[in-house]
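Thread: Newbie trying to understand structure tokens

Hi all, I'm a second-year student working on a class project, and my supervisor (Dr. K.) asked me to get a predicted structure for one chain before our next meeting. I've only ever worked with sequences, so writing a 3D structure as a token string is new to me. If someone could post the tokens and maybe explain what I'm looking at, I'd be very grateful. Here's the chain:
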Amino acid sequence: PVPDSTVHIPPLTPRPPPMTKGERTRERLLDSAIRLFSASGFQGTSVAQIARDVGITPAAAFAHFPSKELLLDAALDRDALAFLLRVTEDLADIDVVDRWPAIVDLLWTVVGDYHLVNHVVSGNEPESAALMIDTPAIRLGIAVLAERIRDAQDRGAARDDVDAEVLAEGLVDISITMLVARAQSGIAVSESTRQAAADVLGLVLRPVA
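---
Reply by user tm_fold:
Sure, no problem. This is what the structure looks like when written as tokens:
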């Protein structure tokens, strides 16, 4: 047989456009805000400190984020997005209906790697705790979970008498509430409690007999 001399070129993934100087500065501000807010808290950190850490003036920082509250909100959303992307990637091959123990374990295990999220769910920023339920990152997480649930519904593996978006939002809210309760109680969760919580969440999704 004649060897195939065709050159097979894999499809190219479009590269994102390079960031502008302003976009790079904004990212550096968020990186610094995540680190400093999680270390010293909202009240113990000033925009001037964050600006100095980045190497710009406070006025330049305020040009990106007009208030310290908005900077905290953006930093929390940035950290929450990184947290959820990690969870989503690690759960890519996990059945969302039957594997809630793995999902609960992952949430509880990796949250400590995301310092501002962990700082907030641990009760250190009471005024920002509500943001953990309704940040853009959380809304994205709900959308991803809803898509996984729809796929399970199409296969007959999940109940189809409830809208996937409703199920996803409820499950995410419950999971975050469990995460907050565990972080703030400081009490180690027993194997039986972890399994029971995961089983309850799984039952919510299973088809009604």
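A couple of things are worth pointing out once you decode it. Residues 68-90 form the longest helix (23 residues). The chain has ten helices and no strands. Feel free to ask follow-ups in this thread.
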